[in-house]
Recover the amino acids of this structure.
């Protein structure tokens, strides 16, 4: 078994992408001459490249007659695998260089709230050559640490030296209440009026913690795991939520009302990125979001 693995490893060293492209071109074009034209090389170079691949593999891949070139049974299997390898390499190169053509912005709950649509439209108008995709990932890093996005919108400080952040705006804190809650009839509420309630929180990504209240006047806490779970529990009257204003913009829902919390500090909205590998469009995103948040 070890000898066989060693043989495979040796032959892998003798194979390169140029040989695989040559094999696929011959099969697709049907002749060495047409393959040479497609590849932009001489017919003799095509013959040498195929011969070197067959020597490296130790098998015959093509049958060549005066009229046509056809794969052997082994050749058919090798060609199919070669196509997959070339496709994977293409995807690898595209992923490594996609910073110039694609921008994925992650968020945990509510993107950039009321500015979300304007952000998408203004980005497309100003940077049409870079496709913007918003990606929802309910994690503390909004998908950044997981590789799901290039930049992330977060509403809590990131205590991780791998990332840098910039504050792009501030959002009011709102209280989410069941529509039949007595406080729902109020235009606004205070933190002290919520101490006897059950506060529903998402510990991974939420902005509300008992630390908003004095130590001797903190509400009971129950954990939820997703914005839909959070909304469902609040609508049923099982608790209240304190959240950034963007949640109300992104998730209006029958049975729930949002009221400003007058004496709560605003939520800082941050854009985060990898410190040692920032996306090329990072600064443009920071500037656009900052401008949007400054818009009344």
């Amino acid at each position: 078994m070890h000898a066989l693995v060693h043989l495979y490893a040796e032959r892998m060293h003798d194979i390169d992408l140029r040989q695989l492209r040559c094999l696929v071109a011959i099969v697709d074009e049907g002749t060495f001459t047409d393959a040479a034209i497609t590849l932009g090389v001489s017919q003799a170079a095509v013959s040498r490249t195929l011969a070197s691949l067959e020597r490296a593999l130790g098998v015959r891949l093509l049958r060549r007659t005066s009229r046509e070139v056809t794969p052997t049974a082994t050749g058919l299997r090798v060609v199919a695998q070669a196509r997959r390898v070339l496709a994977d390499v293409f995807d690898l190169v595209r992923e490594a260089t996609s910073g110039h053509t694609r921008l994925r912005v992650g968020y945990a709950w509510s993107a950039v709230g009321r500015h979300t649509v304007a952000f998408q439209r203004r980005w497309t108008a100003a940077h049409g050559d870079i496709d913007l995709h918003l990606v929802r990932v309910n994690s503390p890093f909004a998908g950044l640490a997981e590789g799901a996005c290039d930049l992330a919108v977060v509403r809590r400080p990131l205590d991780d030296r791998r990332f840098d952040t910039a504050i792009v705006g501030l959002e009011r804190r709102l209280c989410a209440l069941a529509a039949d809650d007595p406080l729902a009839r109020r235009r606004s509420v205070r933190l002290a009026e919520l101490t006897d309630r059950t506060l529903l929180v998402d510990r991974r990504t939420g902005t509300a913690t008992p630390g908003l209240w004095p130590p001797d006047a903190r509400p009971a806490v129950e954990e939820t795991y997703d914005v839909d779970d959070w909304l469902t529990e609040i609508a049923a009257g099982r608790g209240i939520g304190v959240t950034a204003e963007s949640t109300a913009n992104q998730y209006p829902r029958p049975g729930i009302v949002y009221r400003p919390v007058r004496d709560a500090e605003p939520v800082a909205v941050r854009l985060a990125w990898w410190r040692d590998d920032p996306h090329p469009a990072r600064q443009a995103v920071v500037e656009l979001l900052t401008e949007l948040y400054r818009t009344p």
Observations:
- The mean pLDDT is 91.
- The two ends are 71 Å apart (CA to CA).
- The chain has nine helices and twelve strands.
- Residues 115 and 295 are 9 Å apart (CA to CA).
